[in-house]
Each structure stands twice: as C-alpha cells, then as structure tokens.
Amino acid sequence: MATGRNHRPATRSRGIPEATVARLPLYLRALTALSERSVPTVSSEELASAAGVNSAKLRKDFSYLGSYGTRGVGYDVEYLVYQISRELGLTQDWPVVIVGIGNLGAALANYGGFASRGFRVAALIDADHAMTGAQVAGLPVQHVDDLETIIRTNGVSIGVITTPGSAAQQVCDRLVGAGITSILNFAPTVLSVPDGVDVRKVDLSIELQILAFHEQRKATDELARNGGPGPSGAPPDDQGPEGDIPAVMPA
Amino acid sequence: MATGRNHRPATRSRGIPEATVARLPLYLRALTALSERSVPTVSSEELASAAGVNSAKLRKDFSYLGSYGTRGVGYDVEYLVYQISRELGLTQDWPVVIVGIGNLGAALANYGGFASRGFRVAALIDADHAMTGAQVAGLPVQHVDDLETIIRTNGVSIGVITTPGSAAQQVCDRLVGAGITSILNFAPTVLSVPDGVDVRKVDLSIELQILAFHEQRKATDELARNGGPGPSGAPPDDQGPEGDIPAVMPA
DNA sequence: ATGCCTTTGTGAACGCGTGCACAAAGACGG
DNA sequence: CCGTCTTTGTGCACGCGTTCACAAAGGCAT
C-alpha cells in the first residue's frame, strides 16, 4: 500500500482531473525553484503558498498522483519533481513546430521557456517565400509547402499557430492532416478539429476584454460609492454588492 | 504582505458569472464578423456554432445580460454587438502600458488585436537604458524610472508585464503602487497583489505542459490498444478533453 | 517504548457551471 | 383574426471542483 504505484483510480487514464493537470506545471515550477536552493522537503502549506493555491487543494491534487508525502514531514522535493515531470510527460522529448513567423512567432521561437522542459522547437514555418531561409532564433524558416514533410520527418505531434486569424483554420487542417494531435493556437479564431485532437487557445484580445470588464465594474462601484447616495434609496455601501440591478434597462 | 488572497466569489460581478464574462468576447467576435457581412439577425444555434459553444449555454449567458432576443426570430446582430461591447466596457478607451520590451513585448506592441477594440498602447516601458528612445511599433520606449509618471499622466489602469520572471514581481509592485488595478502577466511567476487588483496570466510553458500530458496519455492509450490484450476494458469511447479550454486562468 | 506534535490524505458538504427539456412568446401564413 | 411553427428564456438535475475538518500516520524527544 505504501508504494501506491499501480494504485490507479478505478476510471483508468481519466484518473487525474483536468483542473489538477492544469496546476501540476505550477507546482513543478515552484518545486524546481526549491530544488535549485537545495531544499530537501517542503510542506503542503509552504508549497501551496509558493504556487499561489490553497494547501488543501494542493494535497488533494497530489493525492491523485499517489501518496508521495510523509506525514509530519512533508514532501520530498526531488522525488516530487520527478513524479510530476513523469506524469506530465516531460521526461521525454517533445518536438514542436511554430507556424507563422511574424512578431509573435519569432518571439516564441526565442522564448527560453520553450526549451526549458523537454520542449524543442523543431522547425519554423511561414507562408511568405521572402522569409524562407531566414534565420530566426538560430533556426531556418521553412516554407509552408513543406509542412507535411517537416512534421513527419521530425515526428512532431505538437503545433503552435501564430498566423493571422484568416489563415489559422487552413493551417490547422494541414497540421492535423500531417499527424499533429495537439495545437496551441494564438490566432483569434475558433478552430475546428476532429476528435482526438487537443486545442488550447491563448487569446490576448479576450484577456484584455475580461480585464476591461472587471475594470469597468470597479470604476462604477467606486463611482456609486463616491458619487453620492442618490435619491433612489439604494443603500450607499452595503458590503454585498448584491441586489445591484443592471444600470441600464432597455426600453 | 500582498499574499495574493484573491478570494473571488465569482458571482460578485453584477450577477454575471465569471464563466459567462469569459465567453462574451468570443460572442462579440463572432457577432462582429456577422455584422461585417451585414447579417441582420442570428439564431442562438448559428451564433453558438460560430463561437464554438453550446447553444443552450449561449442563451443562458445572454439571459444574464437581459432579454435581447426575439422568440421565433433570434438576436439582432447590431444591437447585441452594442450591448456586449457596453457590458464589457469596450465603448470607452483603455490605455495600456507594456512593461518589458523584449521579443514578446515588441510582438504585443505590434499586435493588431490590441488596438482593435478600444485598447490603446499608451506607452512602452523597459529597464534597459540602451532601449530608451528606440521606436517600437511607432512608439518610443521609455525607461522604467518614469513608470509612475507615465501611468499617472496617461490615466492607465491596465498593465501588461512581459519582463523576465525575475523582474515581474518588482514591476508588478510598482504598477500597483502607481494605481494600476488590472494586470496581464506573461512572466512565468506567481504574482502577489493586494485585494482589488485583478491579475490574469498567460503562461506558454504551462500550456505546452498541459498539451504534453494529454499527448502522453494519447500515446499510452494507443499503445495499450494495440499492444495489450483487447478485452481489458478500454472502450474507445474516450473522446478526450475536447473543446476550447481557456488557456488562461484567473489568478 | 511511549506519548506528543506535526502534517498528510481524504470523506463529505457545498457551490458553480453545464446541458436538458419544455413552456412562453412572438412572427407569419392563411 | 387565428393557428402553426420557430426560437427564446429558464427551471431543474447532474457532475466537477473546491473547501472544510479530522482521523490516521509518522517523526521525535524523553
């Protein structure tokens, strides 16, 4: 029991909740920092604080991986780094292609975070003939005509799309056709992919709009607080912003 | 202090669920495309398909905004564009500062998606004196020494951090000190901010690691299906973590 | 060896988000 | 003006994720 190695949750591969998977890289980063400082063990409280999460959540997350902690002591940093790395598949090499070598694509190619954990930029691809052969981040830009060959030759299964939105779906289709099964999409487009292909999107515009929403809310809250009690009989400042009726009702 | 205790009830924002807010920009984008094609009305089914979500979800989302549809007909595109824009606060101008003008910062400065919806890059800031005065995306790079002045002068409330991870928290503290209340963080660091400040993070490394996890799982599933005895109870019903999982989590 | 003290691992409750299914509402043809 | 047909808006149930709270587990001092 102590070795809970093959203690696979009844529902086989589905054992680890998606939300937990999304936090594992966060834990790994914090653990790596501890490892570099030669810290031998860490408690769930300390590690949770470093990762910016709740300690109970962290313990539950780790419980999905197995019992890797020691009660009364905490977790062995090195061991945990290894276990999480293995769970995330970072002990193997993941060649990645970047399609669309504009400003953003070039920035990603130069981004150190890529290479840091088993990810290797295998190729840079662009549709512009004028760019073909140019060196970006020490790699030659190759033409999109050779996309399928490049992917198959290098055994690439992860693709990053940094093209304009108008080209994204077309590129995506070709990537999937060539065997890519995981896509990180920076283009402002909803990609359609067949079952079995994972897509994650990073959308700067959407992030800003979400921030703007909260920013606006903060501004109106502030205004309501300072701008006068108002004869409408609304309580000036009740702790709960609840009961707030939409400011403008359509006629 | 400033131990990021972002305790967000998620339902606090004027009754609009956080998950809905995160989808509004998606709807807005689809609606804008329809508007440009002069499509007068759209059904929840059509719009949902264009935005890549479930139609029931879309209708429920809109129900939080009010009853802007017409039964038997659908939604008026122009009206909905306006309502969502207003709700998201996009009818006003949002000056933004970008701190850290490396490859990524420069890429963002050039990114068209910024200016597209009320967002305006008000200033570029970097700690490197050698960069001060250089033109990036038509704007002069200013030194971080003037950060507070720049922010106050331009009335900026949204900051984008594209510095190395080691500088992120320091920059963050100064931004907050200068009055910034919304931060989009690209640095691979957990930022601590006081209450009242929103932080959203975009972490390329984490996204890749999540993809790698699923990629590894797909590989082992495949292996088990081909290599192992079939009747071990592994039906191919596994549709995978399909769908558009937002790549950015609220901090 | 024993008892105390720390920390893990987890059962259970709760709350949010999602999707179903259907009644209400309105357009439209006759 | 009425019936039919389309589509919205939503009550309800379900499942996932989060959090609390605590018993079990193990180190450590005596």
TrEMBL record, chains A, B:
Enumerate the spans annotated as CoA-binding domain: 89-190
The residues that make up the annotated DNA-binding region are 26-65
Give me the residues that bind NAD(+), please: 100-105
Chain positions covered by the region annotation Disordered: 219-251
The UniProt function text for this chain reads: Modulates transcription in response to changes in cellular NADH/NAD(+) redox state.
Where does this one sit in the cell?
A: Cytoplasm
Among the GO molecular function terms of this UniProt record, one is: DNA binding
Q: To which protein family does this belong? A: Belongs to the transcriptional regulatory Rex family.
This protein's superkingdom? Bacteria
- GO cellular component entries: cytoplasm
Lineage of producing organism: Bacteria, Bacillati, Actinomycetota, Actinomycetes, Kitasatosporales
Where mainly found?
Answer: cytoplasm
Q: What is this protein called?
A: Redox-sensing transcriptional repressor Rex
Q: Which InterPro entries match?
A: CoA-bd, NAD(P)-bd_dom_sf, Rex_actinobacterial-type, Rex_DNA-bd_C_dom, Tscrpt_rep_Rex, WH-like_DNA-bd_sf, WH_DNA-bd_sf
Which keywords does this Swiss-Prot/TrEMBL entry list?
A: Cytoplasm, DNA-binding, NAD, Repressor, Transcription, Transcription regulation
List this protein's GO terms for biological process. Answer: negative regulation of DNA-templated transcription; response to redox state
Describe its partners and assembly state.
Homodimer.
